Recover the amino acids of this structure.
């Protein structure tokens, strides 16, 4: 019998306009999600329920890129060469380069092509240099385990680009602070003027809580005086919003040795492989550009380079959270899947969502307890210098902020900023 309504009896949901749907599908391709995961995200985030056949038809309709339809050989080769040029220590393997191309350039390229091209450009694929026996083996550790996401967040400051590490003069350095969920996702990486100030770390913690609207059951860190506000805020918020949790059974904060704070400590090594070592090398090129003791040079460094480093951190977080991890048989926590996917769908991997929702009003109230305002805690330069530098940057046409061109931008801005200050 003919169905006069034309309906097949299944509610597929309401499709967004083509421009928006195309953007959604392209983002899934950019993140290299498998087709079945794309279907899950469509259903979860957009209430669209379709099958593989329909998804493939939509991908064809909007010409969503896939590795099988790869044709842009010249563009991809150029992009690979550019990524290799940025990687001073040649530590990035084909998987990393492939993911960077997908996330940063929207190029979906077969891994075999990436590997062969890298080998042709460099002479040896960096992944070959990391074969077993090539370097010192990792420290033996037991497998990490957890009940679910937001059970434990690991925090730590990083000073490898700081003033003491660079030794390029007073005020020349960029500290970083990071937070990572025990299950794997990097939650927060931010540049700050000083990672040893309790007021600053207090604001960083509240920013993270505000972003996710929740705290974890526990926060783990390697002890330090700068963690006073962080520990106090975590303890207070948990007492208010999860009063049934026993502090004896689930401590709100735990201090451990740096070598035991594994998830966040390992994050810094991943970041160094992605851009940290290269970033430090590029920053240290400033020895031939910076005039020691010159106030304009010092302030311009503090205006320009934190922006560039933060862009690099944001790119790393995007890459790391969307990269499918290596499948490990002995690993208890999920492997062979991207951290974002586990975090978005913990139930699929036998995990719970233990996030403790927190009201924004409570976050704002706690922030008022900190003597230093948020604006002051994140301040790199004075408002006056920021205005001068911003005007000069616009005058130069707002050149793209990236590490390789950072010192060229610095040299172009320095004399013009100096003239305005004088």
């Amino acid at each position: 019998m003919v169905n006069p309504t034309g309906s097949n009896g299944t509610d597929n949901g309401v499709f967004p306009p083509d421009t928006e749907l195309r953007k959604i599908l392209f983002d899934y391709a950019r993140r290299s999600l498998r087709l079945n995961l794309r279907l899950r995200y469509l259903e979860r985030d957009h209430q669209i329920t379709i099958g593989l056949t329909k998804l493939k038809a939509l991908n064809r309709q909007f010409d969503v890129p896939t590795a099988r339809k790869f044709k842009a050989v010249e563009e991809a080769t150029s992009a690979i060469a550019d990524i290799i040029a940025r990687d001073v220590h040649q530590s990035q393997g084909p998987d990393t380069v492939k993911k960077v191309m997908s996330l940063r350039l929207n190029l979906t390229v077969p891994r075999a092509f990436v590997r062969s091209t890298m080998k042709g450009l460099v002479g040896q694929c960096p992944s070959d240099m990391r074969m077993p026996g090539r370097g010192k083996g990792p420290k033996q550790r037991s497998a990490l385990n957890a009940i679910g996401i937001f059970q434990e967040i690991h925090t730590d400051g990083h000073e490898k680009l700081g003033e003491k590490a660079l030794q390029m003069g007073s005020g020349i350095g960029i500290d970083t602070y990071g937070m990572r969920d025990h299950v794997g996702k990097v939650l927060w990486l931010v540049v700050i003027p000083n990672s040893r100030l309790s007021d600053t770390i207090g604001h960083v913690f509240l920013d993270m809580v505000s972003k996710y609207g929740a705290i974890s059951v526990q926060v783990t860190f390697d002890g330090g005086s700068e963690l006073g506000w962080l520990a106090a805020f975590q303890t207070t918020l948990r007492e208010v919003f999860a009063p049934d949790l026993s502090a004896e059974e689930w401590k709100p904060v735990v201090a451990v040795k740096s070598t035991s704070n594994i998830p966040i400590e390992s994050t810094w090594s991943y970041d160094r492989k992605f851009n940290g070592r290269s970033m430090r090398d590029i920053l240290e090129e400033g020895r031939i550009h910076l005039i020691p003791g010159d106030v304009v040079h010092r302030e311009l460094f503090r205006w320009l380079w934190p922006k560039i480093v933060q862009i690099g951190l944001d790119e790393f977080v995007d890459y790391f959270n969307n990269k499918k991890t290596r499948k490990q048989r002995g690993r208890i926590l999920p492997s062979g899947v991207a951290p974002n996917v586990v975090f978005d769908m913990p139930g699929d991997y036998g995990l719970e969502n233990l996030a403790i929702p927190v009201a924004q009003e409570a976050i704002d109230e706690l922030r008022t307890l900190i003597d230093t305002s948020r604006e002051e805690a994140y301040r790199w330069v004075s408002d006056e210098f920021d205005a001068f530098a911003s005007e000069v940057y616009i005058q130069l046409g707002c050149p793209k902020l990236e590490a390789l061109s950072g010192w060229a931008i610095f040299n172009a801005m320095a004399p013009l900023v100096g003239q305005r200050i004088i």
